[in-house]
Amino acid sequence: MTTKKATVYIRLKDGVLDPQGVTIQKALAQMGYADVLSVRSGRFFELEMKPDSNNPDRQIEEICGKLLANPVIEKFEVEDSE
Amino acid sequence: MKVGVVTFPGSNCDYDAYAAVRHILKENVVFLWHKSSDLQGVDLVILPGGFSYGDYLRSGAIARFSPIMEQVVSFANSGGFVLGICNGFQVLTESGLLPGALIRNSHLRFSCKYVNLRVENAGTPFTGACRQGDVLRIPIAHGDGNYYNFDGDISELENSGRVVFRYVDHRGEVTGEANPNGSINNIAGIINAEGNVLGMMPHPERAVELILGSDDGLKVFESVRAACRSGIKAGQA
User: Fold this and answer.
1) Which of A82, B15, B94, B184 counts the most CB atoms within 10 A of its CB?
2) Burial of B181 from C-beta contacts in 10 A (0-12 / 13-18 / 19+)
3) What does the longest C-alpha to C-alpha distance in chain A come to?
4) Is the interface score ipTM higher than 0.95?
5) What is the greatest pairwise CA distance in chain B?
6) For residue B200, which of B109, B56, B100 has the smallest C-alpha distance?
7) How many domains, chain B?
8) Residues of A with CB under 8 A from a CB of B
9) pLDDT in tens, B165-224
């Protein structure tokens, strides 16, 4: 049995202001990278589950909805790492 | 009135709230440890400001799952008074007791200053000592105070009198300059539909004596004391 590894990506929903992204975009423009139209920031988490985990996919999904992402402002995406 | 002030790891306004209730209001007050599951029979729970759990993940996101919060949620759902201040407001939105979310200030800076708050609804248990339209001078101190919600939910809050405090200028006008963090509609504080759970970013406990610069915050505490004494539970008024 192999351990289940997943990467969870958290992004702000479309339309939710991302002041960090806006600030980075402005800094880039100042640095001369005028081609960058917009920047959206986000974060990711790497989860490693026990080899004998019962339905790890469902658990990870649950964890994302309950804790890692705030569904009011954020969306998440789970990617199998191996 | 017996008040409970919750202490999470990283709370830093718990003593301010405690002092305001004990020394200014002269009411009974206890600390409620985050690992405890006992609300000790309090009439009002205060979730204080600070950086619970280091603000890791999102402000208030981890605190929401502490043992004491389970009790606070059922206390709130049975009509008990809950006041969330600053980080406490963030914990309330994360726990689902209040709608919406508090995101990073639009200018990205931590903002610590006095603001003017207009009382938009003087009919709540937390504002009964105010008059509609009163302008209170109360300080803010936050980095994540930008109230966000969906358009539909904002309209619902606005139409049902659930926006309790709004950032205004010294004349009581809603302006862009008076908005310290980018909150939609200059929203500074909201209440739940039942009227027993209030969240606000400004710190009334830091404005309870003139020597501190303002005693306008006392009105919030006096209001909820009066509500407790009248014995009217939320939703029965």
Assistant:
1) B94
2) buried
3) 52
4) no
5) 45
6) B100
7) 1
8) 16-17, 19-20, 23, 67-68, 70, 72-73
9) 999 999 999 999 999 999 999 999 999 999 999 999 999 999 999 999 999 999 999 999
Place of tokens 């020394």: B23
The DSSP bridge pattern shows strands B146-148 and B197-200 to be unpaired
Q: Is position B12 within any domain?
A: yes
User: Quick check: B138 and B216 in contact, CB under 8 A?
Assistant: yes
B82 neighbors B194 (Cβ within 8 angstroms): no
pLDDT tens per residue across all 82 residues of chain A: 678 899 999 999 998 889 889 989 999 999 999 999 999 999 999 999 999 999 999 999 999 999 999 999 999 999 998 6
Is B101 within 8 Å of chain A by CB? yes
* CATH code where residue A73 lies: 3.30.1280.10
Report the 10 Å Cβ neighbour count for B32. 24
Q: Report the number of distinct structural domains present in chain A.
A: 1
* pTM for the whole structure: 0.93
* 3-state SS, residue A79: strand
Which pLDDT score, from 0 to 100, does residue B235 have?
A: 45
Residue at B90 is within a domain? yes
| Confidence check: pLDDT of B233 > 90 | no
Q: From the candidates B13, B86, B130, B228, give the one annotated as an active-site residue.
A: B86
Is B155 within the bounds of a domain? yes
Q: What average pLDDT is seen over chain B? A: 95
The answer to whether B148 contacts A17, with C-beta atoms less than 8 Å apart, is yes
Residue B201 sits in a domain whose CATH number is: 3.40.50.880
